TrEMBL record:
InterPro entries: PPR_At4g14850-like_plant, PPR_rpt, TPR-like_helical_dom_sf. The keyword Repeat applies. This is Pentatricopeptide repeat-containing protein. GO terms for biological process: RNA modification. Keywords: Repeat. PANTHER family: PENTATRICOPEPTIDE REPEAT-CONTAINING PROTEIN. PPR repeats lie at residues 1-28. The keyword Repeat applies. NCBIfam families: PPR. It comes from Acorus calamus. GO terms for molecular function: RNA binding.
């Protein structure tokens, strides 16, 4: 079920199913952990992703091929966006090289690792681009994402904050 939810673009259901599994006392195996890690990457659930990473090592799955692939694909995305998730004045000082680096991570999530980018990822990129003065590119990113309701408000708030 966990992998099925991921496959059908429902990472939140995947996360909830994993949580219920653990609450019922069912030990996760390499497959359930690997898909749960992917769900964390898609959702931007950094804290849970770090916890699952720890479970991988505690349970001795660190050398399991399924886990190794999952961690190499998801860990890079989680790490990259983790650095952007809690910006401070230093991390938001942007140069063209930094913007290019984050743009590559953002692209790589979907194209290389098949990780669906969530609203948090878009918010990070929009804020980064706006803070770097790349207003047109930030607007293109917003316009390319079909947003409604709260998502629309959140991403535009990030855009306007970045334009200050």
């Amino acid at each position: 079920m966990i992998s099925g939810y991921i496959g059908f673009g429902r990472p939140e259901e995947s996360r909830r199913t994993f949580k219920r599994m653990v609450e019922y006392g069912i030990d996760p195996n390499a497959f359930t952990l690997s898909f749960s890690i992917k769900a964390c990457a898609v959702l931007g659930a950094l804290k849970l992703g770090r916890c699952l990473h720890g479970v991988v090592f505690l349970r001795g799955f660190a050398s399991n091929e399924v886990i190794v692939h999952s961690l190499s694909a998801s860990n890079e995305a989680l790490q990259s966006f983790e650095e952007m998730a809690e910006p401070d004045s230093v991390s938001w000082r942007t140069s063209s090289g930094q913007v290019k680096r984050w743009r590559n991570y953002f692209r790589s999530m979907r194209e290389d690792y098949k990780i669906e980018r969530g609203l948090k990822h878009y918010n990070c990129m929009v804020g980064l681009l706006a803070r770097a003065g790349m207003i047109d590119e930030a607007e293109e990113l917003i316009n390319g994402k079909a947003l409604q309701g709260e998502s629309f408000i959140l991403i535009h708030h990030e855009f306007f904050e970045g334009c200050k």
